[in-house]
Amino acid sequence: MRVRVSGGELEGVVRRGLRMWRGIPYAAPPVGALRFRAPAPVEPWSGVRSAAEFGPVAPQDRNGQFAGPPTSVPMSEDCLTLNVIAPAGESREARPVMVFIHGGAYSVGSSREIRKQGEGLVRQGGIVFVNLNYRLGALGYLDFSTFSTRARTLESNLGLRDQVAALEWVRDNIAQFGGDPANVTLFGESAGGNAVTTLLAVPAAHGLFARAIAQSSPANAIYPHDVTAGWARDYVELLSEAVDNSSTDSTSPEDAGALLAAADVDDLVRATTRMQLLTPDRAPGTVVLAPVIDGTFLPERPLDAFKSGRAARVPLIVGTNDREGSLFRGRLDILATTPPRIRAIFAKTRKRSRKALKALYPGLPARRPAADFGGDLAFWYPTVKVAERHARFAEVHFYRFDIAPRLLRLTGHDATHGLELFALFDRMDGLFGRMLGMLGGRAAFKRAGARMQAQWLRFAHDGTVGEHWPKYTARTRRTLIIDRVDRVEEDPRGERRVAWQAFVPHV
Asked: Which of 159, 204, 266, 368 lies at a C-alpha separation of 20 to 30 Å from 491?
């Protein structure tokens, strides 16, 4: 169970018939002078490092807008670690590798949040599974580069750079675990799906994965530097208030940079939560924690890269769930779902386009149509654009996840955002999964999950899918509907798609 990787030697464990290595550093701790800097190479260690336990999770709010980890889970800026799971048996041939990027609005989440994540895929598919932590919140997804000085450099897209560093680690080290560095499938959900569609447009990531799967990606949640620079100034003002530093000038690079460098991590996290709560109403339809088009690391908007063929031309599975927006209620409501937010979105478009689109969401802005409007704006329509554009240059397979246990139907959530993770990662056997299935539908949901797993694993092995799942093209738009009985539909919700095209033609 000992392996040698970048940095030194690791001692893994065997659990439940699988070989596991946890808490493996893939970059230097981003602390001190490395805060707000691109990830640096792994710091070597002496002796044999135990890889039996997960590394600390990235700093995040345990009781913020989104549910963070319990207090029993260690948290630290020294969070750039990953985990590897491999079958116990040896193989004559190198195994396919699947690298998963977690979601959580780039503000919460970690590689340990889903118990036994990836174990089922390894058992059933004989693959090597990798998942990772990356910097979140202000430490990873706010753009403070405008505050750089000769004495202090602040870099952008840090969480995205962390993900590239992890993929480089996989390229250089995964063979030690029986994996094939030339056969890597990158996949992720929600913010992790956004990471996947964005990394396809990051030149430094090209060649680090052979294919990709993007689940519920808010693919257009990428912003130009002039927008993110304004958010950075707003954030510094909030942070200055949080630390009671009335002398900080949020327009001064020297003052702002010094405050960011010296701030306690808890203050950074609290200011991030305040910023998240304010932004959906200040700038409806946007999310404040997101990649920035910096002109170098991320040179252009990913949707433009897909349109021009400059995105990595690798096979892609992409899709969304039936009702993405129904999850975002109460404190989770960050989408364009309230009457003022919807009015702000409509105000930017032509009257005729507004009228045509509004007719397809009867009752808007009532809660159910508003949830569907906000979910389609954030997730479904941008995903359609990714698929139709990428399909001109590489093979694309499009899906929609429709199945949901009866309890979720009764509560009006249906197949909402994130539900497919319960299918993909065998979560219906856990306590919460059994609660979801207590009123019926659990067995059918698990069968649909098994079919989904089989498709994802087949794709990871050789880039193919089942013969009944055709390629997606802009002409036919054939889509796999994952339900009690899977089916293929041509251009599902085509009327909505046409209306959205007229409503937001720039997407």
From this structure: 368
